[in-house]
Design a protein that fits this description.
about 270 residues, 4-stranded antiparallel sheet, alpha+beta, 6 helices
Length: about 270
């Protein structure tokens, strides 16, 4: 999985190293089935007894999947029942309905006192190579993706406004044009975009600004790579550095995406 070859190093205490148990991995998928376009969350917890700084835990890794998008949320560290815990949330967003298997999840770890974090290990590295850090693995899980109910409430309230605004704008452009109108995006594509925009606005209302920018970035990645890179940077600042975006900044980024969508309608490939 590209983009997550960084180390999440825990330095929660100090002192001499004590004899500790090997780290253990616990994986807990969310209840229920997945839905197209909605993140399906898998909680991954690496835990051990002993000193909190005895291990450095890497971000979860997985092979790419062609039926959806997989991202890793920021790590959280805490102590539960005397055990040190590093928890990560893996989100898989399916593209369509069907029956799938999640990819194998891998979480590597190091002992900071004895080993310096190395660069991400290449896939061709031999398992016997001493530079390859040990890894905890979670077997694939079945994932059933059912039809989304989003369209039902999309046609009411804000969702309907967004959808019909986009449709009305396209019709107006077509009437004003003296040239034959280019073939517009398919209804399914327009619905998918408007659904994503509705989800983004809902995340903002819920105060979840990290997911707000993640969704905007996914929409922008299909039409404007430069804007997508900017939105990705904003999401990383919010999710990993605790930056709190202002309302003006969020409004400005939303309008930038709207302009990019209009340009895409005007200049089809």
């Amino acid at each position: 999985m590209n983009g997550f070859g960084y180390w999440v190093v825990l330095f929660l205490g100090c002192g001499c190293l004590a004899l500790a148990s090997e780290p253990e991995l616990k994986v807990t998928p969310q209840e229920g089935d997945g839905r197209p376009g909605r993140p399906y969350r898998i909680e991954c917890e690496v835990s051990w007894e002993g000193e909190p700084d005895e291990y450095a835990v890497a971000a979860a890794e997985a092979d790419a999947i062609d039926w959806g998008e997989l991202v890793v949320r920021e790590a959280r560290s805490f102590v539960r029942d005397g055990r040190n815990v590093v928890a990560q949330t893996v989100e898989i967003t399916p593209k369509a309905t069907g029956e799938y298997k999640t990819p194998e999840l891998r979480i590597s770890y190091l002992i900071p006192e004895t080993t310096s974090p190395a660069e991400p290990v290449a896939p061709e590295a031999a398992p016997s190579d001493s530079s390859v850090p040990p890894a905890l693995r979670a077997d694939p899980l079945p994932l059933f993706v059912r039809p989304s109910r989003t369209l039902v409430w999309l046609l009411g309230g804000l969702g309907a406004s967004l959808f019909f605004l986009g449709a009305g704008w396209w019709l107006a452009q077509r009437r004003r044009s003296h040239q034959p109108a280019p073939q517009p995006p398919s209804p399914a594509d327009r619905v998918a975009v408007q659904t994503s925009l509705h989800q983004a606005r809902q995340r903002r209302l819920d105060g979840n600004h990290y997911e707000y920018y993640q969704i905007l970035g996914r929409v922008a990645s299909e039409i404007d790579p430069e804007l997508a890179a900017s939105l990705k940077s904003r999401a990383e600042a919010v999710g990993y550095r605790g930056v709190r975006p202002t309302d003006d900044e969020m409004d400005s980024d939303w309008r930038a995406l709207e302009r990019a969508l209009r340009r895409e309608e005007e200049e089809p490939e």
